[in-house]
Amino acid sequence: QERLIESGGGFVQAGDSLRLSCTASRTFKRYTMGWFRQAPGKEREFVASIDWSAAHTYYLDSVKGRFTISRDNDKITIYLQMNTLKPDDTAIYYCAAGFEGASIYIFEYDHWGQGTQVTVSS
Q1: Burial code of 71-103, b = ≥16 C-beta within 10 A, e = fewer?
Q2: Residues 105, 34: Cα–Cα separation, whole Å
Q3: Could you identify which of 15, 28, 30, 60 might form a hypothetical disulfide with 97, taking C-beta atoms 3.0 to 4.6 angstroms apart as the criterion?
Q4: pLDDT per residue over 68-121, tens digit each?
């Protein structure tokens, strides 16, 4: 069964850190994986992605230097380490699996998790 299950969200203060995890079924072991987020009243936006070998990563400009995406292919788990969180980072964060060569565009991803809420208070 194909599945993507996010965890690790929560309520934090500005400047704090969180690590999101996405546990994927074996189907997605060699997929490019991405993190997206959607804030209330806004469209879903790309945050970060990583190819299956971890050779290529992409980041939203506003999270560069603060967020780090990584993966453990043995555990089939993708991580998003988020440091120095800001209130603007408040959103539901979604894990997604995309086809080979996927990068930053939402249409490149066709499998989605249910999301995990991240709330950053000022």
Answers
A1: beeeebbbbbebeebeeebbbbbbbbbbeeebe
A2: 10
A3: 28
A4: 999 999 999 999 999 999 999 999 999 999 988 889 999 999 999 999 999 999
